[in-house]
Amino acid sequence: MAALLEESLAAGAAELGIGISDQDMALYRKYYQLLQEENSKYNLTSLEGEREVAVKHFLDSLCCAGVLDFNHKLVVDIGTGAGFPGVPLKINCRDMVLVLVDSVKKKVGFLDLLIEKLDLADVKTRWDRAETMGRAEEFRERADIVVSRAVASLNVLAEICLPLVKLGGWFLSLKGPGAKEELAGALRAVDLMGGGLERVENLILPIFNEERNLILIRKVAHTPEKYPRREGMPAKRPIV
Ligand code: SAM
Q1: pLDDT tens digit string along 30-53?
Q2: 69-127, pLDDT tens digit by residue?
Q3: In this structure, CATH architecture of domain 69-236
Q4: Which residues line ligand 1 (CB under 6 A)?
Q5: Which of 44, 69, 217, 230 has CB 3.0 to 4.6 Å from 171, enough for a Cys bridge?
Q6: Which string of DSSP letters, residue by residue, matches the chain?
Q7: Residue with CA at minimum distance from ligand 1 atom 17
Q8: Which of 103, 212, 236 to mutate to test the pocket of ligand 1 (most atoms within 8 A of CB)?
């Protein structure tokens, strides 16, 4: 008989139209176990139950797979924490190349352990701030897709994430209810960074029936050189 994690994942994924193989299920089980074992050491998540982690971390991350094609893409996850949404997306789409970024060193320590335990190829971790990466030639306007969940308000995210996206690429922001109001206050920043709002996908998270909004922003022009501003400034003096 399937345990709660597997049961919730299977039921929720079916509702979202996403397939999860037996091999992937085993990876989610390992991921869950590692989160439980290491949570107190790394302060990774406040969610503990199998159903909650399955839905609010794993499935919530997987929702992105329904709106963009991640195959063969270079994907950067900014402020990934314990690996969300990047790692579930990588489990779902093995041929993408993933860079997991977080500004807290110990979280990156957890991510290194996770990647090793799950034996995932083409995943790099980086202890850095998005603002610093956005000014580095190695990362500026290189990513096909930048994703980010629960890191900052959308106007701040636009400044720190869009400089990393290449022309024609995407910035995908995962938001809960209230996303439309947040978006209205971020359109200027999006435009200044060379972004163009494509659409907002509104959906209901299975099992818990919570509202989610996936904001899709396309990189339509180069980001002016003066952006992003130096570390901390985008959040301290957000563009309004
Ligand atoms: N994305 C994960 C999730 O949804 O569970 C983690 C969210 S956690 C609330 C926010 C994370 O963003 C933290 O781990 C923090 O260290 C990281 N962070 C905040 N600002 C950042 C920045 N400018 N560059 C890189 N990481 C950042």
Answers
A1: 999 999 999 988 888 887 799 999
A2: 999 999 999 999 999 999 999 999 999 999 999 999 999 999 999 999 999 999 999 99
A3: 3-Layer(aba) Sandwich (3.40)
A4: 78-82, 84, 101-104, 107, 129-131, 149-151, 160
A5: 217
A6: ---HHHHHHHHHHHHHT----HHHHHHHHHHHHHHHHHHHHHT--S--SHHHIIIIIIIHHHGGGGTS--TT-EEEEET-TTTTTHHHHHHH-TTSEEEEEES-HHHHHHHHHHHHHHT-SSEEEEES-HHHHHHSTTTTTTEEEEEEESSS-HHHHHHHHGGGEEEEEEEEEEE-TTHHHHHHTTHHHHHHTTEEEEEEEEEEETTTTEEEEEEEEEE-SPPPTT-SPSTTHHHHS---
A7: 79
A8: 103
